[in-house]
Design goal:
elongated, PQQ_rpt_dom, 6-stranded antiparallel sheet, GMP Synthetase, Chain A, domain 3, 5-stranded mixed sheet, disordered N terminus, Non-ribosomal Peptide Synthetase Peptidyl Carrier Protein, Chain A, lipid metabolism, 4 domains, nucleotide-binding, alpha+beta, single chain, 25 helices, ATP binding, Rossmann fold
Length: 1151
């Protein structure tokens, strides 16, 4: 059964319309009544019933008695002002009168007097910058403004630049009426440039009509109608040029009517005017009270800045029963005061309505409530452009009082009277499940923006707010400008703030994205908690990419006059802080060592460790990885205020003491450093002589070379990125297999003397194609023209009803620890098909697993962690894999026994590659060298100094015969595979974690700077393309699709370009793409090429490789940094939940 409150109906605009279906039995307001009434008429009705009751109270909080007006007094003063204004004002066009004053006892009478003229009131805040108020008044072409008498001098002096001397004035009780005459002086607003274009674009695209037929389209609202407008506001200008918002009675009256019923307002209630007059929730506060016979409490603005005094006035002196506020305003009271006074068991507060910002988490709300508190808490949501509120949701009592402390998101609730809520995707289509942007409007819930004169009824406005739709409920995700990309991952900074709020020592907090570069958390703490403690807690609950770059402990959060966090003020605070920090440069070596230790612990999440960092500690051995090393490197460079070339390599290869000395040498070059990096402590490796190796590790039966003889088997070796090696396979079978399996056109590798016979070939090909488990029932109907940018929502982990393929786990094998290596598949080409998966793990184990059954054939424990992917030897009898202990192991593929080991001088994460023409094995090491090994003669043929850590895997091109090596120093090298001599080098400037890949014409490599670089084989840069995040993924090249290139980025996208560097498509996933994509044929739809890729959040994506359209997605239980490999219809990939997975691609029938 659907939840009461939201009902859906179809709509000609193909948008989801959420209609009002109020669960409250008291909701009997009719649509017709809301159309006919005006705000002033509603007040006059209440005044007739409650003429002698108190309408408004002003407490100056200055040891003097509060002042009270009855409804009769308010109406009489309003009538006097109306008569005065009607006498002195003549209108042509829009009827507006400004009001320049501070909150006081006369405020409701002044507003009501303007409304009765009839005219709209336009509040002008005396405390905002004169440039902004002048801009607002000139933009409105405001002709009249009422100025509080004791503010006349301030008004005149603040605006004399823009006003002519012939301004006319007339006095009334407590007010002076100005007839304004503006000169031609421009108002120069200082605006955030980066937002201005977005604002214009949004304005151009935010309006759509709910009405589809011509008759309805002719119905419109005209801003010039005499009784049209109620009030005029302007937006703050913090996100671009301030907008003028003119609000008709027909837009705001339904809000007042409906909220009055939902909050059950009676003449016994006391409502506090918490909002400034320029913030549209103030309209709700004023008129909820004055249309119900209730009392409105007003205090000076300065008192709102004093939480303790304000709480005393509200809940001990006046016993306020209804409070509408922003979460920021409420937080200023502090959790202790909230619990003891506002939400205590004996509080006078019946209703607490929070809106204007992201709603607090349930755990925070629970911590604020005293046991037995009965206050009803509401989440209200809306935008100024469709004033004031659009949705409302009462938090169920069971959620607030739950002893289990279950943390679930709070929904936005049901639309208020007359409001239509739509959720649309980027193409303007319905979002029935998943993420989209909220659009608000309604038949007559329409406001005029800027210069709009007429608007069709049913106009809808884009909000810039994003929600997730789940069933019948909507959950707020954040503002469009709160969505940021950091380390290539999408983050909502409001979510980071919510996590920080749950830390018990945090009183209140705010997060900013400083200059779109650094994530900064500002914290007001309880009990003097230091920022290290906050950071330690955040690291427990946030992924590494969401942990703030810096934390500032401040005494109180600044907020705007509207009661929201003042982001501009926080930006200034941090700007002053870093300027102060940069002006006080590092005082010397001792301070550098202290700060380096702090950054070391921060990056490795070891802040709670009280011990000093051991001087011989190694980054990778202490839980570091490539992402953490990038963060550590950036923070060090921020600390010293300069770039340090080669720092990343030192972090990955050397001890913390070596890192310190390396920085010291760069920052203080004139000081002697006691230790040079080349002599520094690196990772400790055991040194073994040949006798020790032979006695302990080597299979004694493997004496002579084994790459000849008739007993050799024919293999296909498949590894990440469509790398394929044929062993003892004829040319005809090579081409046949490549066409069916990988979409990779192979180089003409030399055939050996033991090729399969033609009959064996035919038998194998028949077996290979017939055993595919993928069955497709029919083709999808798809248009040729599709969007070039595709995306999937965060929560969508299964295919929709029209899906053609799904993934199902065939088997999984437990390796004991994380599996970051990518699988190697060795397929034995015999009449009885046999295939083995070889893969290593952080547990030091490497396994050989039967591809079809998942049975472990053998397992070998090596000397350290394995992240290197295995490589099959040219003869097919050996597996080569690198290890963290600096050794390169050569294992027998039949039983895993060690045939030979070769020792480098540092960690080996590079995956080896084989030269099919010579049988040599090429591999890189963190010791800055590339090696060519003859595993049959058990010797190193050559080693070449690459002047930087070789993290990625070498790439061998046969024509020309080049070996390509990428380093963390940012250098791409082309070496002669025979001698190891350099052919050419090119510096990309930033680290290269990506492995280079080649085509007939080019060699390509991804870079941490977010670029994919394309070179010709002579080393000349041909083209480069940019992404919005570092590229760790290696390119995957598919020759059968016009040599298209596929790769992933930390910006969460999978990209497709052609070999000329022209963009084909990109697809947005839900997390960074670390591994390399893999293309393969759908066996039953021969014209279709598919692409498999993994995102780091554990999702496996299958796309149509030609168009980038999603075919299916499957979620694994852990993170995935491994690259998928596909054979037939089986996909194999490693996962950080300690398992290697094999999944079947299954066809399903369309519905």
């Amino acid at each position: 059964m659907p939840r009461p409150g939201l009902a859906r109906r179809s709509c000609p605009t193909r948008t989801t319309v959420l209609e009002l279906k109020c669960p409250n039995s008291l909701c009997t307001v009719t649509k017709s009544s809301s159309v006919k009434m005006t705000l002033q008429e509603m007040v006059l009705q209440a005044a007739a019933l409650y003429s002698d009751r108190i309408a408004v109270c002003f407490d100056g909080c200055n040891n003097q008695c509060p002042v009270y007006y009855t409804y009769r007094s308010v109406v009489n003063f309003a009538s006097e002002l109306s008569s005065f204004l009607q006498l002195h004002c003549s209108f042509e066009g829009i009827r507006e009168i400004g009001l320049y004053c501070y909150p006081g006892i006369n405020l409701p009478s002044w507003i009501l007097g303007i409304l009765q003229v009839p005219a709209a009131y336009s509040p002008v805040d005396p405390d905002i910058p004169p440039e902004l108020s002048a801009y607002f008044m000139k933009k409105c072409n405001l002709k009249y403004i009422l100025v509080e008498k004791n503010q006349v001098d301030k008004f005149k002096s603040s605006h004399e630049t823009w006003l002519n001397n012939d301004t006319i004035t007339a006095d009334h009780t407590g007010l002076t009426l100005f007839e304004l005459h503006w000169n031609d002086t421009d108002v120069n607003l200082i605006l955030p440039d980066k937002k201005e274009n977005y604002g214009k674009e949004k304005m151009n695209n935010c309006i759509s009509s709910l009405n589809s037929n011509e008759e309805k389209a002719k119905k419109s609202l005209d801003v010039r109608f005499q009784h049209c407008l109620a009030y005029v506001l302007h937006t703050s200008g913090t996100t671009g040029i301030p907008k003028i918002v003119r609000v008709p009675h027909t837009c705001i009256v339904p809000n007042i009517q409906h909220l009055r019923i939902l909050f059950e307002i009676t003449q016994e209630d006391i409502l506090f005017m918490a909002s400034p007059l320029t913030f549209d929730p103030s309209v709700v506060e004023i008129f909820l009270a004055l249309t119900s016979g209730a009392s409105l409490l007003i205090v000076p603005s300065a008192i709102k800045m004093l939480p303790l005094k304000l709480a005393t006035v509200l809940f001990h002196h006046h016993h306020v029963t209804v409070l509408q506020a922003t979460p920021t305003l409420l937080r200023r009271f502090g959790s202790q005061l909230i619990k003891s006074s506002i939400l205590s068991a004996t509080t006078s507060l019946r209703v607490l309505a929070l809106g204007g910002e992201a709603f607090p988490s349930l755990s925070v709300l629970r911590s604020w409530r005293e046991e037995d508190n009965k206050t009803k808490i509401f989440n209200i949501y809306g935008i100024t452009e469709v004033s004031a509120w659009a949705t409302c949701y009462r938090i169920p009592e069971e959620d607030l009082s739950s002893a289990l402390g279950v943390e679930s998101p709070v929904q936005l609730g049901f639309p208020l009277l007359g409001t239509v809520v739509e959720v649309r995707d980027a193409n303007g289509l319905t979002v029935r499940e998943g993420e989209g942007q909220v659009f608000l409007g309604g038949e007559k819930r329409v406001c005029f923006l800027d210069d709009e004169i007429t608007l069709p009824f049913g106009t809808m406005r884009a909000t810039g707010d994003f929600v997730t739709v789940k069933g019948e409920a909507m959950f707020f995700l954040g503002r469009q400008d709160s969505q940021i990309k950091r380390h290539g991952k999408r983050i909502n900074i409001e979510c980071v703030q919510q996590v920080a709020e749950r830390i018990c020592q945090v009183e209140s907090c705010a997060v900013i994205w400083y200059h779109q570069e650094r994530l900064i958390l500002f914290v007001v703490t309880k009990d003097g908690l230091v920022k290290d403690g906050v950071l330690g807690e955040l690291q427990k609950h946030l992924p590494s990419y969401a942990v703030p770059d810096d934390i500032m402990v401040i005494e109180a959060l600044p907020f705007t006059s509207h009661g929201k966090i003042d982001v501009s003020e926080l930006t200034k605070i941090y700007f002053n802080y870093i300027n102060l920090k940069s002006s006080s440069n590092l005082k010397g070596k001792e301070e550098l060592w202290e700060r380096l230790q702090y950054l070391w612990k921060s990056s490795l999440r070891l802040l709670e460790d009280p011990l000093e960092v051991s001087k011989d500690s190694l980054f990778l051995s202490n839980g570091g990885d490539s992402l953490k090393s990038l963060w550590f490197s950036n923070e060090i460079e921020n600390l010293v205020g300069r770039s340090i070339p080669g720092l990343l390599e030192v972090i990955l290869n050397c001890s913390v003491l070596d890192i310190y000395y390396y920085i010291l040498q760069a920052v203080f070059p004139d000081e002697d450093t006691p230790l040079n990096r080349s002599n520094g402590t690196k990772r400790k490796f055991s040194v073994m002589n040949k006798g020790e190796i032979s006695g302990k590790y080597v299979d004694q039966k493997s004496g002579s070379p084994v790459n000849s003889g008739k007993e050799q088997n024919a293999f296909i070796a498949l590894s990440r990125g469509n790398q394929i090696l044929f062993v003892n396979v004829s040319e005809s079978l090579k081409n046949s297999l490549s066409m069916r399996q990988t979409g990779t056109k192979l180089e003409k590798y030399p055939s050996t003397s033991s090729d399969l016979s033609s009959s064996e070939e035919s038998s194998f090909v028949q077996n290979m194609t017939s055993k595919s488990p993928l069955t497709i029932i029919q083709k999808m109907d798809g248009a040729e023209e599709i969007s070039s940018v595709l995306k999937i929502s965060e929560d969508e982990t299964s295919m929709r009803a029209s899906a053609r393929i799904k993934l199902r786990v065939r088997w999984k094998s437990n390796t004991g620890k994380c599996v970051d290596a990518s699988p190697l598949m060795a397929i034995l080409l015999l009449n009885q098909l046999s295939a083995t998966v070889y893969i290593g793990s952080h547990s030091h184990r490497i396994q050989a697993v039967d591809l079809y059954s998942g049975k472990v054939k053998w397992e070998q424990i090596l000397g350290d962690r394995i992240e290197s992917s295995a490589c099959l030897s040219h003869c097919g009898n050996f597996i080569i894999v690198g290890c963290y202990n600096g050794l390169i192991y050569v294992l027998r593929n039949s039983n895993g026994k060690i045939h030979w080991m070769f020792a480098t001088k540092d960690t080996v994460k590079s995956s080896a590659t084989v030269d099919p023409s010579t049988g040599l094995i090429y591999v890189g090491s963190h010791d800055h060298h590339a090696y060519a090994l003859d595993i049959y003669k058990e010797t190193c043929v050559w080693k070449s100094d690459c002047e930087g850590t070789v993290f990625s895997s070498p790439c061998l091109s046969l024509a020309p015969h080049h070996l390509y090596i990428a380093t963390l120093k940012g250098v791409l090298l082309a070496l002669n595979p025979t001698t190891g001599n350099r052919v050419w080098t090119h510096s990309c400037g930033k680290p290269l974690f990506s492995s280079p890949q080649y085509s007939l014409q080019y060699v390509l490599v991804g870079c941490v700077d977010g670029n994919l670089y394309c070179f010709n084989h002579m080393g000349q840069l041909v083209w480069q393309v940019s992404t919005n995040g570092p590229i760790f993924s290696s390119p995957c090249i598919s020759d059968l699709m016009k040599q298209e290139i596929f790769f992933g980025s930390h910006d969460c996208f999978i990209y497709c370009y052609n070999m000329e560097g022209h963009f084909q498509w990109k697809f947005e996933t839900t997390a960074s793409i670390y591994g390399t994509p893999f293309t393969f044929h759908n066996h039953n739809l021969s014209s279709e090429m598919l692409l498999a890729a993994a995102s780091t959040d554990g999702k496996l994506w299958i796309l149509d490789a030609k168009r980038g359209q999603l075919q299916t997605v499957h979620k694994l239980p852990g993170e995935v940094f491994s690259s998928p490999v596909v054979w037939q219809s089986m996909l194999v990939v490693g996962c950080r939940d300690d398992y290697v997975y094999c999944l079947d691609l299954l066809g399903v029938t369309e519905k």
